[in-house]
Structure formats: structure tokens, C-alpha cells
Amino acid sequence: MPRDDGLAGEGRVLLVAFHYPPLAAAPGSLRAGAFARYLPAFGWQPHILAPRISAYDPGSCDSDVVVPGHVHRAWAIDARRHLGWRRRYMAWTAVPDRWAAWLPGAIASGLAAIRRHDIQVIWSTYPIATSHLVAAVLARLSGRPWVAEFRDPMVLDGAPTQRRVLAAIERRVMRQADHLVFATDGSARDYVRRYPAIASRWTVIPNGYDPELQPDMPAPPDPAGLAATAGPRRIVHSGQLYPRDRDPTALFEALAAMKATDRISSGQVRFVFRNIRDDSRYAREVARLGLEDLVEIAPRLPHSAALAEQARADALLVLQGKGFNRQVPAKLFEYLRTGRPLLALVDPEGDTRALLDEVGVGECAAPDRADAIAAAVSAFVESLDRYGSDHPRWRSAPDRLAKYSRRVGAARLAGLLRDLAPGSH
After folding, report:
1. Residue-wise pLDDT tens digits, 382-391
2. Which CA distances in Å does 150 have to 132, 166, 182, 313, 414?
3. What is the DSSP string of 286-340?
């Protein structure tokens, strides 16, 4: 079929991504948006299949965000918001996820895009299991090769019916997809162990920092300027918290114990939690422990402003419990890019700790032991006082970080698409 987009000589890929700009700061939106922005430099024109913006939570989109690629939006609703009452909804309306109603419209819109633009390869990303279902149907109906990405493992949480459906979707993806992409080595190993048949058709493309959003590494400091600055050190955590495995409770308890024994004071340090999901819950915990002078629950900022705050912070905080051992938070790569001191309360067996060991930065401690956290915080604050926040000891070598550029990730994806495209063999 003749093409109408004037892009002769380029490959065409359909990116099936529920999370996509202008949805702001969501890891999936940042990753898919970066792929769409950088793929043209490597010979691929991206078409994106995404939901209508009304499917996203109110206030979650940023009108100033540039939306890359040619976007095809299909009708979708959120079962919790559109079919529920006071955040309660029938479980069957959210199988396999709250956006299952996107499926029929996305299939119709996707087929139209494939035919109109002569799409060569389909790519989809999880989480949001409906994205993989859409891509599976499109690949079957169109005969196009399909790359299925798992940014996170398809953990079988939730109600029994949902677990059964997710397990069935996972098995289908492993059978049907022409290639699998994982975000961490640990996740890839787990999947290959469970599904030996995929052993020859998987690739790891890690999350990363976006060089367009964070263009410059901090300049090496003047050795004469390493003295500690006046006032409390601001240690910033930017991003969501969860009641399990990304929970600051043990940190709060450690700070309360340190404050009670005069091992820390508000004149030394202030922890800032920015862009968290349930700020009222954590504000109550801070008040209960009497930590208002040490901990600030800060209001939401746009992603660009959050990046600027990270670059200005005296230090940055990452929390990652064992339930997330096969995931590395996307914000960690943004943290590393800033070159700021990093306090990492992470499980020692997880992929996040392995990454920090690889790049050679971070004061690390287990996230669920208040005594270990207290020791780590004391050592960290002492190091900040001794060296300042701009010392080279806090930064990884640029060559270690370079492979985690999202542009590099897009180049790897482009090579994979080229290998799978019809006529490439």
C-alpha cells in the first residue's frame, strides 16, 4: 500500500504505550517518549498507539511537554474513576487492569495505523497488561513481528481472577512475541529460567537518563570550594512511595531515634519528599514521630522542575525494598546523571544495588532496619560535612554512565527493530 507520510527509506514502528506524554513524570511515559524522540536518528519513524488523555488521572498531564512522534489515540476509561463510586469499583471491570476498556478501540486504531502507514514492526510495553493484549491481537491480524517489553516483571498480585488472567497473558506473550525486552539483567534471568523457550530471543535495554532533559554533567569543582555550606543539607527523594518495599517508615523511625539521642538535628539535615502519591499518610507519620523539623512532605512539581531541584540538592535519596529486586527505579538514572551524593536504602540482593556497585557510588544500607539506616545516615551526613556535595567522589565516571543514556537505549531498540523488520534477512 502506498504511504502518505513522505518518509521513504525509513522504518516504521508502532509503539503501543498506555503511558505516553503529555502524561508527566510516569516512568513508562518518559521511556516511551524518549524512544519516540530518538528513534528517527537511527532510521525509524515512530507511530504511537496511546489512549485519549481523558483516561489519565486529572492533573497528571503537563501541557508544556512536547509530544513526540505521530500519536494515534483511542477511547479509554479508568474503571476506578469512570465506573466506580468513591474509588470503589467492581473487580471484574479491572481485569487485567483498570484500563481494559481501551482494548477494542486500540485494536481498531492500531489496525488503521498499520495499514495506512505500512507499519513494519509492533512494540508494546508493560505494565499495563492491556497494552500487550492489544499488540498480540494486532500482530496476529497483521502478521507484523512483535517486540514485547517488560519494564517490570508481570507480578501476579491482586485478586485471584486477576492473577489467573495475568498469568495467561504472560504465557501468551512468551509464546507469541518475536522478541522480549527486559529492563534489568535480573528480570531477564528470571524469565528465561521460567520460560526456557525464549532463551534465544530476548534483550536487556535498561532505563536511563535523557540527555535532552539533563544535557550537562556538573562541572568538576574547584578543590578550594569544598568546605561545607551553611544551613541544613537538603536530601531529596523525588517520586512515588508505596506502603510496601518503597516505604520510608524505617527511615522515619531511625531519624526519630537519632533525634532523641542528639545524633542528628535540624541544623544538619532536612529530608524532602517530593511528588509522592499519598502525601497525607506520610505527613501524619512525620507528625506522629515529631519529625517536622527534619522531614518535609513537599507538593508536586512538574518533571522539569523536579529535575532542577535534584541538580540543586545537597544529596539524593532512593528507597527500594526486596519486592522490587528485579526493578531499578527510573529516577535513579536521573539521580546518577546529576552527580549529587546518593543515599541508597536498597536491598543488598537487588538489581538496584548491583547497579550502584557497578557505577561505584552511593552510601548503601538495607531499607527495613532502623539501626542500619541510622548508621548509614550518620556516616553520610559526616561525609557531606567533610567533603561537601560537589566533591568528585560522589560522581561516577562518565564512561560508566554513558551506556545508560536513553539515546543509547533507542539505538539498541532500533537495531533490534531492523533485525525483525520484514525483508531484513
Report:
1. 999 999 998 8
2. 10, 13, 5, 32, 17
3. HHHTT-TTTEEEEPP--HHHHHHHHHHSSEEEEEE-GGGTT---HHHHHHHHHT-
